[in-house]
Amino acid sequence: MQRHIFNCSKGCPVESTLQIISGKWKSVILYHLIKDEVCRFSELQKKMPHCSRRMLSLQLNELETDKIIEKKIYPVIPPKTEYRLTSFGKTLIPVIIEMEKWGQMYNHINS
């Protein structure tokens, strides 16, 4: 997917951020990579049971294309693939952590 740099109103930097982390699962993937540092595909599947294998793969590929995460494939059988945040991806840590805090507050208020 082609990404755009928005050069318009004040909301555009938010729009730029959202085009990278939007999608139902990208922020969740990033959250798990922040908490665990490295995750294998199968570990992410277990942590996100409502995300299909195909969707997880698609979201990981988009995050990798955007240079937010990096993938390491080990030449073993069965194949072992690990994902971790890139240096650039680590700049999203404060954003995701604030989302975690807000979500905890929301869950507490509505429980």
UniProtKB/TrEMBL annotation:
Single GO term (MF): DNA binding
Signal sequence, renumbered to the chain: none
Domain HTH hxlR-type: 12-111
Keywords linked to the UniProt accession: DNA-binding, Transcription, Transcription regulation
Pfam families: HxlR
PROSITE patterns to which the protein is assigned, alphabetical: HTH_HXLR (PS51118)
Keyword Cytoplasm attributed: no
Protein name per the record: Helix-turn-helix transcriptional regulator
Organism: Limosilactobacillus albertensis
